[in-house]
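Hi U.,

Before I forget, here's the chain from the pilot set. I'm dumping it here mostly so it's searchable later in email.
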Amino acid sequence: MKTPEEIVAEMMQQDAFSKWLGIELIHISRGYCVLQLSVNSEMLNGFEILHGGISYSLSDSALAFAANSYGNKCVSIETSISHLKPVPPKEILKAVANELHRGKSLAVYEVSIFNARDEKISLFKGTVHISKEIW
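Structure:
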């Protein structure tokens, strides 16, 4: 069986979008993931704050890595996000994915994103389908 680190490395090789965003893996273990992202000017919306799609995408990647860390391939089936604080340019963000429940075929995760001052800027919840296919 592959380690969580090996699984995420394999996922990242095929994940052009996460690489394009500049997502950095800080920590991975079964059901838990920490990612980091540096906000650049191309990630800003018309209000000159972080576009909500970027925080959503960072959360979605953290969910994917945490859920797949056990070795079974997982895909999201439902997700939602609440944006709590605006994010200015040049911010460093940390996404923390925690497993809330894992059953035979479904798992539920919560992803919190924090700014450099450790303030929560968004809260994401996601449900994944756990397949029988192995990494």
